[in-house]
Design a protein that fits this description.
- The chain is of the alpha+beta class.
- Helix content is 35%, strand content 35%.
- The chain is built from 4 helices and 6 strands; from the N terminus they run E-E-E-H-H-E-E-H-H-E.
- The strands form 2 sheets. A 3-stranded antiparallel sheet has the order 1-2-3. A 3-stranded mixed sheet has the order 4-5-6, covered by helices on one side.
- The longest helix has 23 residues.
- The chain is elongated and about 55 Å long.
- It starts with a strand and ends with a strand.
Length: 136
């Protein structure tokens, strides 16, 4: 399986701008710029997209881990915060709020750790990954 995305950038790093389009067209000429990346400008940025990818991948991997253990979550709410410092992603902090009927705290934490270590995005990131997991 392969997925694609295209970035087009025009101009200099600080004054220029670009747009992103994904194969699915969920992003379709979505703007990004220096301001949307390093300030509070309108548009997306690579780190926000990595955060979305990590949160989504982790949630789906956890659902498969839970299914393999005989559980189905009512809900898995995952937030990923990507930290960029000195031109390097220095961390992805995952916060999980889960509603899973009948699961013990121990099995929940074991499953969440498994998903953190083994989701494809976690495996592709060369950075520290933290997880704050709670049952709600």
């Amino acid at each position: 399986m392969k997925r694609t995305a295209t970035a087009v950038w025009n101009g200099s790093g600080k004054e220029g701008s670009g747009h992103l389009t994904t194969q699915s067209t969920t992003l379709n000429n979505t703007q990004y710029s220096y301001k949307s990346r390093f300030e509070q400008g309108v548009g997306t940025n690579p780190e926000e997209l990595i955060a979305a990818a990590h949160a989504g991948c982790f949630a789906m991997k956890l659902s498969f881990v839970l299914q393999g253990a005989g559980f189905t979550a009512d809900s898995l709410e995952v937030t990923s915060t990507i930290t960029l410092g000195d031109g390097v992603i220095t961390g992805s902090d995952l916060v999980l709020k889960a509603k899973i009927p009948g699961i013990s705290k121990e099995k929940f934490l074991e499953s969440a750790e498994d998903a953190k270590l083994n989701c494809p995005i976690s495996k592709s990131l060369n950075t520290a990954i933290t997880l704050d997991a709670s049952l709600v």
